[in-house]
Design a protein that fits this description.
four-stranded antiparallel β-sheet; disordered N terminus
């Protein structure tokens, strides 16, 4: 075994098998201990990184708000100085001298005085660090203070916030030992990201538990066929499927619906209204992949984990969405008096490495040609059923509204009370229309919904009639798209397939397969070469229409309910069940995330100019956004969930369909 001369004779160097196993065991235990130690360090670093990111965003917003406030106070001082200069000549000579001397004395603020004021206010803040921060009222609602008072107030606010953050940090350090004993590598006062991860883990655990229940079906068809429901008890969307639901009886329905078609959701936490879920993570069951819309009640204010920094109450009832959004009331308290319109930061840029930063909008964000100022309600079209689909003709004279079993045609070219000029009976009487699309020439209308059949209507005939029907294997169609040359139609099916139809030969050309659950929304590029689809499987996919293959896939943590491709190219807007709107760059990892909706984003549409788009949601809101960074242009509140929308080709009209059994036509004002 050993070369001669290397090993001393008479002293054999041997190990038994047992000794070798013991040494291997010791080495393994040592490596395992090292692994656990490194794992704890890694978790600690991740927690600290999340905390630093949150602090960075808070400091960024605070500095931005202080900067705006400083410029505002400087402008107020300029205007007051101009007013004084105009009034002083009307005083007597003696009074003029007195006023001028008083003004000069007011301007002479020394650094010593400022430091003294700031020091006193900081001591007061430290002695009352459990009380809310004394935020000054908005200058527009109070008498403007002098320059010295404004400057000292702003400096005191900054110093107080810094002191509070330092106190919070010391408090966390003091608790660190106890937290390590309770849960190694995690802090007792969990960060927003940890809270979100806990909710996600609980949701996944519930999903696994539900899958283990008897009678639960895991097939894609069963998961999607019974979704996209319309709840008639509150005139909100519910898509009754052609076969009964097989979901577990362990889950509670939010509201009793007709027969088996009641909306499904996880049980709400004790003490909360089941119709107003506090968190989008708990608003619906993870295993219930649906575009279900539950009754809309007044938005409830969702409070996250308490920060050590005192906070004021919020005017924006936001749910915890991301690490920096779990405490919107803190942002609202520091920025609501600073940002235009009193809105807290709602648009964030997300870089390739996941870093989120509030978007500083350019000065011309809401200016320039093609950017609307607001929208004026023009017509109310009383359809009589929940309006799940709308479209407007290129001539802007006719509006088509899809409800239960029929599409109604409205002539909006004339003023006065509107009544439907035609009714197109489609599908079965009890099945909802999910999508209707006009061909560019306006002579044909394609209708799809809760049936395996698509109807093509001839609108040029003296009386509209069905001229063709397409039948697929899926029990429902959730969305439609027409190619720019009007030769091909694409239908998003409840089984996840995208079916391509030849409109001239009335034949099925091919199917794009990839979504593992229902395909819910679709849009096509202007050149007709790429197709974008979103699904209930939490993915957005891009398809090459020339080669017939999938090009891209974007994965999300929420179901996709709507999307729109920017006519100018490069950007894709996606509306989600989590209430976010995300704007993706189609070739780069950059994206924007918009947080103004308070519930599911049910529909989305780009203006043909590509400069702006609208989104609607279960929160009754119609939001108009500047593309791509998402500056809010205007917002309209309707009386019920807004399920569908469309924009005219000339960008002058917006049409929405709601759960209030009506459609609304808006005139866009520039």
């Amino acid at each position: 075994m050993f070369p001669q001369g290397r090993h001393p004779s008479g002293q054999p160097f041997k190990f038994s098998v047992l000794e070798i196993c013991e040494r291997i065991k010791e080495e393994f235990q040592f490596l395992q201990a090292q692994y656990h130690s490194l794992k704890l360090e890694c978790e600690k670093l991740v927690s600290e990184k999340t905390e630093m990111q949150r602090h960075y965003v808070m400091y960024y917003e605070m500095s931005y708000g202080l900067n705006i406030e400083m410029h505002k106070q400087a402008e107020i001082v300029k205007r007051l100085s101009a007013i004084c200069a105009q009034i002083i000549p009307f005083l007597t000579q003696e009074h003029q001298q007195q006023v001028l001397q008083a003004v000069e004395r007011a301007k002479q603020v020394t650094m010593g005085e400022l430091n003294s004021i700031v020091g006193q206010q900081q001591l007061q803040q430290l002695s009352q660090h459990a009380a809310p921060l004394p935020l000054a009222a908005h200058p527009s609602s109070t008498q403007p203070p002098s320059l010295s008072t404004a400057s000292s107030g702003l400096l005191a606010l900054s110093g107080a916030l810094m002191a509070q953050v330092q106190l919070a940090k010391e408090h966390r350090v003091a608790q660190h030992g106890e937290s390590r004993e309770l849960s190694p590598g995690r802090s007792v006062s969990s960060s927003p990201a940890e809270s979100l991860q806990d909710e996600q883990r609980m949701g996944l655990k519930r999903k696994r538990d539900e899958k283990e229940l008897p009678g639960h079906s895991d097939s894609d068809g069963d998961k999607s066929d019974d979704n996209l429901v319309v709840d008639e008890t509150h005139s909100v969307a519910r898509a009754a499927a052609s076969k009964p639901s097989s979901s577990s009886p362990a889950r509670d329905s939010l509201t009793p619906g007709p027969g088996p078609s009641s909306a499904i959701a996880l049980r709400p936490p004790p003490g909360t209204d089941s119709a107003t879920p506090c968190s989008p993570l708990s608003s619906s069951s993870p295993s219930t992949s649906s575009l279900a819309v539950v009754p809309q009640a007044s938005p409830s204010l969702c409070t996250g984990t308490q920060l050590s920094v005192p906070q004021a109450s919020s005017t924006h009832g936001r749910s915890p969405l991301v690490a920096f959004e779990s405490h919107p009331h803190l942002r609202a308290s520091t920025l609501s008096s600073s940002l235009p319109g009193g809105k807290a930061a709602y648009s964030f840029h997300v870089s390739a490495d996941g870093q989120m930063q509030p978007v500083p909008f350019p000065p011309d964000a809401l200016l320039g040609s093609g950017i609307p100022r607001h929208a004026r309600q023009l017509h109310t079209l009383s359809h009589g059923e929940v309006v799940c689909a709308v479209t407007i003709s290129n001539s802007t004279r006719h509006v088509y509204t899809g409800g239960k079993g029929c599409v109604k045609v409205w002539d909006v070219g004339q003023p006065g009370t509107k009544t439907a000029v035609a009714q197109l009976d489609c599908l079965n009487r009890d099945n909802y229309i999910r999508s209707c699309k006009l061909l560019p020439d306006g002579r044909s209308l394609i209708v799809g919904g809760e049936a395996s059949t698509l109807s093509i209507w001839d609108l040029a005939a003296p009386t509209p009639r069905i001229k063709a029907e397409f039948t697929s294997s899926a029990p429902a169609c959730y969305a439609l798209a027409i190619s720019p040359d009007a030769k091909v139609c694409f239908s998003c099916c409840s089984d996840g397939n995208i079916v391509v139809w030849d409109l001239q030969n009335q034949t099925l050309v091919r199917q794009f397969q990839g979504h593992t659950d229902g395909a819910s929304c679709i849009d096509i590029s202007n050149d007709g070469t790429k197709l974008w689809t979103g699904g209930l499987d939490n993915t957005v996919r891009c398809w090459d229409l020339r080669e017939g293959r999938q090009l891209q896939q974007h994965d999300f943590s929420s179901q996709i309910f709507s999307l729109g491709y920017c006519p100018m190219g490069e950007w894709l807007a996606v509306g989600m069940e989590s209430s976010n709107v995300e704007i993706l760059h189609v070739t780069k990892p950059d994206k924007y995330q918009l947080h103004l909706h308070e519930s599911c984003v049910l529909s989305l549409k780009f203006a043909s100019c590509g400069k702006w788009f609208v989104s609607t949601g279960k929160d009754n809101l119609l939001n108009a956004w500047r593309a791509p960074y998402g500056a809010s242009i205007f917002q309209s509140k309707e009386s019920s969930s807004v399920l569908s929308c469309d924009i005219s080709v000339n960008n002058k009209f917006i049409v929405t369909g709601s759960g209030d059994k009506k459609a609304t036509v808006y005139e866009v004002v520039y």
